[in-house]
Amino acid sequence: MHGYDEVRTASRALATEAVHAGRDDLARQGLHAPPIDLSTTYPSYDSRGEAARIDAFATTGAEPDGPPVYGRLGNPTVARFETALARLEGTEAAVAFASGMAALTAVLLVRASMGLRHVVAVRPLYGCSDHLLTAGLLGSEVTWTDPAGIAEALRPDTGLVMVESPANPTLAEVDLRAVAHDCGSVPLLADNTFATPVLQRPAEHGARLVLHSATKYLGGHGDVMAGVVACDEEFAGRLRQIRFATGGVLHPLAGYLLLRGLSTLPVRVRAASETAAELARRLTADPRVARVHYPRIGGAMIAFEVHGDPHEAIAGVRLITPAVSLGSVDTLIQHPASISHRIVDADDRRGAGVSDRLLRMSVGLEDVEDLWADLDEALGARPERGAGNRATRHNEPAAAARH
User: Fold this and answer.
1) Phi and psi at residue 164, in whole multiples of 5°?
2) What is the CATH number of domain 269-402?
3) Which residues, other chains included, contact 387 with Cβ-Cβ below 8 Å and sequence gap of 6+?
4) What is the Cα–Cα distance from 224 to 255, expressed in whole angstroms?
5) Which of these is catalytic: 191, 240, 243, 288?
6) In this structure, are residues 391 and 286 in contact, taking their beta carbons and an 8 Å threshold?
């Protein structure tokens, strides 16, 4: 069974938690919908008390007790989303940022502030994550390895091990529990953007940090940009200090939209995953497709390599939108080698399995037959019987047969 059929939080099913987490106090306030607090600053007549709260934040990064102080220190609406996401991921805390890249930057800055600038990472990662590490823009040094080489790649100054599973864009998966074991005392950062806590909760497998581009499935409607790190309270305090100092805060309206998006996350992921599994099955059997990548845990993402020109396929869609990003209610398709992973060195990109004929599709909530009709038209004429190559089955999910 898929993770979304099994996952429970400590006390409630994930679907229930998705609806109620971050909203537990509303009824007591006589409210039904969460309020949006747009204030940037807040009045206080107790400057001595404010001084003590600022001192406490500077020491530990703990959220100040009492009323808010200033928007860069924290916001009540954003805090609701953070509380909810932490509950869904099964962590003590979560810290939200203006984008997924701002969130990853904050993690790297926390470790660098401790003199731990070396990162061990497994490709593929999202293209901009790869670039941030490789370019050394934050003074970090990266060692790229496969999962089996993580333990050997660790150094005394290693501050982080980073993996993405399923990975962007090939949907390659790693054994998070095994990787976490090989990390020893070094924190494992797992990018869980593609899976979401509906399909897997990396903290349960030993990851100390769980990263999301919340722009994607957590928001779910293509109208909000955000990032979030779910983690223990100690690391969250350091992340809040970095967020305060660098200003990568999440706008309250975005926090509101994300909290609203979480309430339908399990339903959206379940529905889109069922459609994706069926499309993956059809693409695997299609002679115009060379290879299909679909994760064993399921999900709404499909990657596939075509025999023909991938650019022609992109140009041929009508219902599906040719665009970057993913996780929205509508289906999107893009050519990673041209866009999302263009910034990665070509040899590194191909070495990580991102071929020039690879297409990545984020399946939405449309009817499967309408999506298939659009794909069928975009892929062009089928070869005559006996001509061409049959698709190679790769990572075809057992789930596909079950749906």
Assistant:
1) -130, 120
2) 3.90.1150.10
3) 287
4) 9
5) 191
6) yes
Catalytic residue chosen out of the listed positions 12, 72, 260, 282: 72
Catalytic residue check, 201? no
- CA separation for the pair 233, 373 (Å, rounded): 48
Preceding amide of 124 cis, omega within 30: yes
Strands of 309-374, DSSP E: 321-322, 332-334, 358-362
Q: Which helix (H) or strand (E) holds 293?
A: strand 289-293
Question: Is residue 72 annotated as part of the catalytic site, yes or no?
Answer: yes
Q: Where, residue-wise, is CATH 3.90.1150.10 in the chain? A: 269-402
Cα separation of 266 and 270, whole Å?
6
pLDDT at res. 348: 80
pLDDT tens for residues 106-140? Answer: 999 999 999 999 999 999 999 999 999 999 999 99
Whether residue 42 lies in the annotated active site: no
CA distance 232 to 236: 6
pTM over 0.90: yes
User: What are the phi and psi torsion angles at 205 (to 5°)?
Assistant: -105, 5
